[in-house]
Amino acid sequence: MNRLFGRPNGSAAAAAATAPTAPAAAPAASQIGGGPPALLASDASYSDAIRQLNLASLKEDSGDLRTARECYESGLGLLLGLLKARFPAGTGRPELEQGRDWLRQLLHTQMSKAERLKDKMAVREGNAPANHAVAPSASLLGLGQPGQVARANSGPVRHANNSPSDVRSGSASASPVSNSAASASAPRENIDPALRAAIEGEILRPSNGGVTFASIVGLDDAKAALKEMVILPSLRPDLFSGIRSPPKGLLLYGPPGNGKSFIASAVATESQATFFSVSAASLVSKHLGEGERLVRALFAVARERAPSIVFVDEIDSIMGRRGADEHEASRRLKTEFFIQMDGVSGKSDNGAGRVIVLAATNCPEDLDEALIRRLQRRIYLDVPSAPARLALLQSLFARPPGLKHSLNASDMDSLVAATKNYSNSDLTALVSDAALAPLREIPPDKLMSTPANSLPPVTLAHFQAALVRVRPSVSEERLKEYKRWADKQDATR
To answer: Are residues 233 and 265 in the same domain?
Structure first.
């Protein structure tokens, strides 16, 4: 949140400690009416957020605009994180929906006040205030700006490993080719601030040491295709323009447990495009018409921050084949998604306005034909081949702190042959089960005093026993169905 005016917010905490504490629910009661729902009133993060927002109002009235700005950043960051973590959309629970509606109204009001403060500071510093034709949003407060390593346990932006971090922790170094300039110059569209905040909460930021293509064993054809279609165009848009422009839609499909989401995380790490990671929970709402509005907001924000990648995991859950008995809300959402996809190619010839849709599914045959047509490139992620299984097993053995084993080359060949049709996740489960076998052989009373470096090695017999317990998660017939669909679609393998 410390990117609203480009300066650190170090004095906000000090101001909070020295200034008098205002009533905790003042902004909520005065701006929305009534008191906050019980779930919110008893939440420590909510109380802290309201305290910061009250302090921001007091500091603004006293003329200390810089401290007021910092308090707004702190309070709004807490509210956005609370909305994302504790009050997700589509739960169906009345108390959570009531809290979510309350937070959205409060965010709208406080973001408007923060935007007015920004204009007031611009006037004081001798700059003309921005002409805001649209409502203020979380992006104006520095959420998810390109190049940042953002967020807190209560913040709206996720890392590639889905672990929380601090939105107030600063920024990472920018890459050689960044989309900051394109994002700054892109026209802002008229989007509801709460919807914008929800969409910006889906921006995925790679952390240091995140997943890269080099850390993924196997899938060489898929990695090469993704580098050509996604990574290189985002890094060198000047080369991939005109007739060389990449497709605007890609589909990753295949048996579960073979790295579709994992490879998408690598795309987020290695590309310099803004990466949106969405799912059915991000776009489906019980409120009439809100699903289409969320889809429209998603692509609008993606265009503002272009070049962008919109990754939709398990896309079959929201974009399945249309039928006569389909619910009207689902049909409208799909129609809006198609309309937006048709408009995401961008008008810029140098790639600055490019938005790519990257989708993943385990059930490609359930997808609507109109979506398949728009996903022009389709990449089949099959179960690992024999060389890939060998490489993956060796990688699992070497994973820190390392697995002591007695397998020779012949044993490894036998193990690779026995794991035909095992997925990547099946192989991981197999090695994990076999690694526990030496522990099971030690009596519990002795296990507590056995040093880790004195454990007996894992043997081929341990793996043979694990093969009985861990079986392939995908049947032979199902794999044949995937391959038939791949042949029909002429997919990249």
So the answer is: yes
Q: How many structural domains does the chain have?
A: 3
356 DSSP β-pair partners: 309
Its domain, for residue 242, covers 204-382
Residue 6 lies in a domain: yes
Q: Are 375 and 452 found together in one domain?
A: no
Q: Is residue 2 a part of any domain in this protein?
A: yes
Residues 353 and 445 occupy one common structural domain: no
Closest CA to 275 of 347, 343, 179, 191: 179
Domain-terminating residue out of 111, 141, 171? 141
CA 357 to mean position of chain CA atoms: 14
The DSSP symbol for 400 reads T
What whole-number distance in Å separates Cα of residue 272 and Cα of residue 179?
Answer: 7
Residues 6+ apart with CB under 8 A from 139: 145, 196, 200, 301, 304
Instruction: Give the amino acid at 213.
Output: F
In Å, how far are 208, 214, 235 from 176, measured between CA atoms? 16, 20, 8
Tokens (6 digits) for 214: 């080099």
CB 462 within 8 A of CB 439: no
Q: What is the pLDDT of residues 253-287, one digit of tens each?
A: 999 999 888 888 888 888 878 889 998 888 887 77
Residue whose C-alpha is closest to residue 163's, from 176, 177, 175, 153: 153
**Rounded alpha-carbon distances, angstroms, from residue 376 to 354, 396, 441:** 15, 35, 54
Average pLDDT, rounded, for the chain: 76
- Tell me what pLDDT residue 353 has: 62
